[in-house]
Amino acid sequence: MKKILIVDDMMVSLMMTENMLTDHYKTFCASSGEEAMKIYRQELPDMVLSDLRMPGMSGYELQTQLQEEYHEVIPFMFMTADHDEETESKGFDNGAMDFIRKPFRPDVLLRRVDNILQTVEQIKGLKKNASTDQLTGLLNKISSQIELAKVCEKSIGALMMIDLDSFKLVNDIHGHSMGDQVLINFADILRSAVRHTDILGRMGGDEFVAFCHGIHDEQTVAAKSKFINERIVEMAKRLMGEDMNIPLGASIGCAFVPMSGTEFAELYQKADKALYGVKQNGKHGYGIFKEYEGEENAEANEIANLDQVEMILNERGSDDKAFLLSFESFRTVYRFLKRTRGTYSKMTCLLVISLIRHKEGGTGNLKETAEQFLSMLHENFRAGDVITQNGNNQFFVLLTNTDAHRNVAAAVKRISDAWDKMPGCVYFTFNYEWKVMDS
């Protein structure tokens, strides 16, 4: 059953509208924009039916905030008792799909809601057909490039190029029909190796690409590689018989985002270099791009000049966000700062932040919430601060060149305000401890 969120600050109007719709749709009611935001995050309704003029947050503002948060067009129909044509025009300019004036008849409301939902389904169907690889059901090459360009720019995770090793032998020995079956089943293996929030695409032939949110450690990539390669052998024997002797497997090249950059084209090249290394060393495994090894100068036995050394050492894709590192790299920075603490006029503080599920419980997924939380920390700490994740729900932060109490308090308030706007705050809160780095 389709879900509709009804928003109106007038309780009588809210109840009447719900009564008109409740026999045909699953309805959720909110009496303010703020309450509607929370319900939307929990339920993800198919459309929103909102009053225009409400105290606090108007219908326009509610629509704008939701679309900015979810980065997509959300189906809205506005309700109003205002007969000003300029109001209606502004509603459509704001992206509304329809507009209905109070009071309205039940049959008129139902017909208009049904029209919107049918239109949304048609648009979704057209988009899916245009963006999907017909054989595997994954994103096609063009759609993969578009989606990955957007996600690499703003997310933390692992971009992985995945090649199906020795696939040509399947076509040569068993024919193209069997080759298609192997590709279809391989796509299913990849789906089972990632989460539904990750991105999977087929770049063509036996080449695939994936972006896994929140992954920034080699151990997780290694585990995924092992899982995929084990499943490939099982799948191949099931399709071609137990005596199948084609050395099928998967080679994976990985580049971490944003550590290796934020531009998709550059990251794709880096993952490709890591993949090349795997192919040259026996296949059926994974490789992680490392910045120094990825430079052309790194392969030459020449003495680099100062400018070349700077190019090798410089951070790619640097910005004003915090420095996100693996746990081992974070520990190296921590030890260095501890050694040199006496040479700076200001202090360095170690901040430990832990995610905690709300006492009233809930169904929030810890791993997905931790990814949201890490991304939020990355956005809200300074470029000179250093962050890592420890386990599923703990994060370490080094606040460098700081005035301790004042800066820690400001940082915590900043992340608290940001976290209150994130979907995960419904199920999780956080606590923290901090201390000035000493000997």
Strand order of the largest sheet: 2-1-3-4-5
Give the number of helices. Answer: 15
Contiguous low-pLDDT stretches (5 residues minimum) are 294-301
Category from helices, strands and their pairing: alpha/beta
Describe the largest sheet.
5 strands, parallel
Helix-strand string: EHEHEHEHEHHEHHEEHEHEHHEHEHEEHE
Structure in a nutshell:
This protein is α/β, with parallel strands linked by helices and 439 residues long. It has 15 helices and 15 strands. Helix 1 links the parallel strand 1 and strand 2 (26-30).
Question: Can you describe this structure?
Answer:
The protein is an alpha/beta fold. 46% of the residues lie in helices and 21% in strands. The protein has helices spanning 11-21, 33-43, 59-70, 85-93, 106-131, 141-154, 167-174, 176-193, 218-240, 264-280, 291-294, 306-313, 327-339, 366-380, 405-419; strands spanning 3-7, 26-30, 47-51, 76-80, 98-101, 157-165, 199-204, 207-213, 249-257, 286-288, 323-324, 347-357, 386-390, 394-402, 428-436. Strands 2-1-3-4-5 form a 5-stranded parallel β-sheet, with helices on both faces. A 5-stranded mixed β-sheet has the order 7-8-6-9-10, sandwiched between helices. Helix 2 (33-43) packs parallel to helix 3 (59-70), helix 7 packs antiparallel against helix 8 (176-193) and helix 8 runs antiparallel to helix 9. The longest helix is centred in the N-terminal third of the chain and has 26 residues, at 106-131. The model is unreliable at 294-301 (pLDDT under 50).
